[in-house]
Every structure is written in structure tokens, then in C-alpha cells.
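Before the break, one more example. Copy the sequence into your notebook; we will annotate it together after we see the structure.
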Amino acid sequence: MLSAGVVGLPNVGKSTLFNAVTRTRKADAANYPFCTIEPNQGVVLVPDDRLAVLAKMSKSQKIVPAAIEFVDIAGLVRGASQGEGLGNQFLSHIREVDAIVQVVRCFEDVDVHHVSGSIDPVRDIEVINTELILADLAALTKRLERIQKMVRSGEKQAKSEAGLIERLLVHLNDGKPAVTLNMTPEEKGLLRSFFLLSAKPTIFACNVAENDLVALAGGREDSLAPGHLRAVQHYVELHLATEAVTISAQIESELADLTQDEATEYLAGIGVKESGVGKLITAVYHLLGLRTYFTTGEKETRAWTIHAGDKAPAAAGVVHSDFERGFIAAETLHYNELVHLGSFARAREAGKLRIEGKEYVVKDGDVVEFRFNV
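Here is what the structure looks like once it is written out:
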């Protein structure tokens, strides 16, 4: 299962957000730096309204959503790459995850200490990214020194690595994370073997106060939050080619103790249409390069997780290795077509069910039944 690490400065709401996303109280959320030392881990179900529609259509007894893992990682501080604030330990935790959710504080609260003494989300992003980049520079420099002998002997793999490392060192020294470097498919394959921190796909969670979220939902700008949000959105689009999601970790933490109906009623009562947690989880799922296809029947309707670009046999293998080994064909129809037609019977009558072979790339939202022989 792929994982996303919740990262940021101390006291920005990481643990509160982790508790909300995982609907647990596993992470301590306290008003002092480093209240989290060892990372907390939690499996998160990916919200998908399509499951309920398919289950109703098939009269399924059970629904099984897709899932990913979130990891709550202790707050980083300036100097983390040099070991400040247990930085080396915390950076090693980031190295183990597949993507990063960087929580950025966009709320004002005199009772919650900020390590820099003031609220400036763009500065905070730059602090975190600088530490990741410095750690990568150190790791790449060591790697380049280690392979020099092989480079001099003309070893092809070593020469390719050295060429990419030299490009990366220039890029990183310009203050740019590795993930923004233009690379060939071959270079991207090499990059994965470097396990760089700044090469991990990243999304930003702008953490706002409850009253700010209510104001934003109502289109009001009578707080500092809109300015903070615009600054973050502009910065991450311009410099990091990624996106920012607005969320109130405190509200979401409170919703975690409520039923779905109670949560909907609570949000409606404060003028907010929907929870930000669902948006964040879905965004992270796609950030990880994951896609969903469905199987459905009377027993269960299930969301299966595949990587974008996976072909039908690989998708079948997610269900069972026998399905991939003995793959014959996939009978498939996209969710949108199925809902439009109203049932599988009507889809068959209309000739809309397709038989796809081994080269078919399974799309997000495909409803599939595999044919196989072992």
C-alpha cells in the first residue's frame, strides 16, 4: 500500500489533520514543538460516491473502498538537514513515504506558538523545502563521489547516474526541488533509485481556522486567511507545479467523531458545503499516481487500486495473481456509460459491453469482469 507523509513545521496542525483524515486519536496534538517523535500510521479509505451507486444497482451486500496509508511525521525546523531538532531522524521518516502532504499554517492564534514567531506560509514552505533540498544535495554529493571510480572505468550505468546527478546538483543549488527538473523517462527511472526527498510528489494543505473557513465559504474576505491562501496557491503553482487544498484541521478533527449524517448537518449549520478531508484524500490518491476500477455483484461492490497506465492483465493481478497469469480478456464498461444505461442488462442489449485484450489500458472508473483460465 502506498503512503503519504504529513509534513510541516511544528504546531501547524499536522497531527490534528492526521487524526481527522484517519478518524482516530492516534497522534498527540499539543501546543509545543516535537510532541510527535515516532511517526503515526493510519489506513485511510478513499471516498468515492460511485461505489454506492454501483452497489445499489447490483444490490450488493457489502461495499469495499480503496485505501491508502497516511503517516504523521514530526515537525521539521530550520537546520533539520544538519540534525537540528532530531532532523536527521525525521527526514529518514520522510524518505520512507511515497508522497508528501505539506501542512501550511494559514491561521492566526496567539495561543498556538509558531516556531518563527509570526504567520507567513510562503516562508514556512521555503524553510521545509530548503531542508529537503539540502539533505538531497548532501546525499547526491556522496553518491557522486562513490561512483567516480566506475565512471572513470567507463561503466555505462555509472556514467548515466553521474550525468543526472550533476544536472540535479545544479538544479538543487538553484533552490529548486528535484521533482521540478525536466527529465527523460530513463532519467526518471534513475531518479527513483536515488530516493530523494525533494523528488517526492507533494500537495499542500492550507490549514485555516474554523471562522476563516466559514468566511471563505460565504465569499467574505474579512480575515487574513484569503491573503495567505492566495500567496500559497500562487507560490506552489509558480515554483512547484503542484496544487494547494484548503482545510480546517480543527473542524475536521471534530467531524471525525460524528456519523456521516451528523457531519453533514454540522457543516451545513456553519455554512460549509462539504468536508475538506475527502478532497484532500482524493487529491493525494491521484498524486500517488493511483486510479480506481470497480467490480460489482450481489456479494460486494469493490474499488480496486491500480497505477495510472496499467494494462488489463496487471489490473486483474490486483484481484488475484491467478487472474493475471491466466488472463484471457476483460469485459468492461465505464461507470458513466453504465449509469446512463441504468443496468448491465441494458448495456448488453445496447451492445455497450466491450471485450478488451492484454493491451487495454484500464481507465479510472471502468467496471470490469475478468475472464481467465489457469
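Residues 1 and 68 are 6 Å apart (CA to CA). Residues 27-36 have pLDDT under 50 and may be disordered. Try to locate both features in your own notes.
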